[in-house]
Amino acid sequence: MTSPGFAPEWLALREPADAAARSVGLADLARDRVLNRDPVVVRDLGCGTGSMGRWLSARLGGAQHWVLHDRDPRLLAVAGAAVTGPGVTTRTAEGDLSALRAADLAGTSLVTASALLDVLTREQVNGLAAACVGAGVPALLTLSVAGRVELDPADPLDARFQDAFNDHQRRSGLLGPDAARAAEEAFADLGAHVETRPSPWRLGPAHAALTAEWLRGWVGAAVEQDPALAADAPGYLRRRSTGGLRVVVHHTDLLAFPS
Questions:
Q1: Beta bridge mates, 141
Q2: Within a domain: residue 2?
Q3: In whole angstroms, what is the distance from residue 170 CA to residue 250 CA?
Q4: For position 198, which CATH number holds?
Q5: Are 186 and 244 in contact (CB under 8 A)?
């Protein structure tokens, strides 16, 4: 389920912003749901290099076994060695999780994912919800893009690039910025209790490298979606790269657990 564009270098660059953005409140609620499990067994879907495991394992505390799922063996090799801590063990599982079923989650205490829902289709999100609810397993699903970006100072072309990027995220039936709402509906329709929290990136001068890389990718995807923007893109990037740009990239975290 991990996009081929999720290179290890990009994941490493964004990890501090991800860690600062995720909802600690929802993580604490998830921890409370699994306190009596020994060990806690966490399945991290589309784990990438293990960012979610590094962030959440310290908050869960106690004995934990993480099953790290991804279809990219490069990322799994990094994650398997990097999710560590007192009482934490791991194993990796390579493969596509689009056909996940409740039976596959037997013995699981918690399902997690980070920046995953928006690269799934509605059918895949419905299947994930059905698997979790069918197995009676809570799911903590973080950092789904919300389709809204705030740039300061503003530029007259901001809205056009944002709209084109959002349309690009929805290509080939993917949910993109509609993912969090679709997941909330899917879990709720199955009787699960669902809570959401905002989890925005807040990027300023201290995040210059991440901001620059994000901006190039954001503009590039927008131009790919709407070639009419190609003529304006170089000037837009120049204006945005002169320093002092602050960006808020909105995301949503979601916690669902069977009632």
A1: 113, 254
A2: no
A3: 17
A4: 3.40.50.150
A5: no
Q: pLDDT (tens digit, 9 = 90+) per residue, 91-146? A: 999 988 777 899 999 999 999 999 999 999 999 999 999 999 999 999 999 999 99
pLDDT in tens, 195-246: 999 999 999 999 999 999 999 999 999 999 999 999 999 999 999 987 789 9
| Residue 4 in this model has a pLDDT that exceeds 50 | no
The Cα-based distances of 209 to 1, 78, 235, 239, 243 in angstroms read 26, 22, 19, 16, 11
The parent domain of residue 228 ranges over 8-258
Q: What is the sign of the dihedral through the CA atoms of 216, 222, 227 and 231?
A: negative
* Number of domains the chain contains: 1
Pairing of β 139-152 and β 192-198? unpaired
Residue 194 within any structural domain of the chain: yes
In a domain, 220, yes or no: yes
Report the Cα 9 to chain-centroid distance in Å. 16
pLDDT at residue number 1: 38
Mutual orientation of helices 73-82 and 51-60 as an angle, nearest 10°?
30
Q: What is the structure's pLDDT at 36?
A: 80
Nearest C-alpha neighbor of 217 from the set 2, 55, 7 = 7
How far apart are the C-alpha atoms of 230 and 153, rounded to whole Å?
22
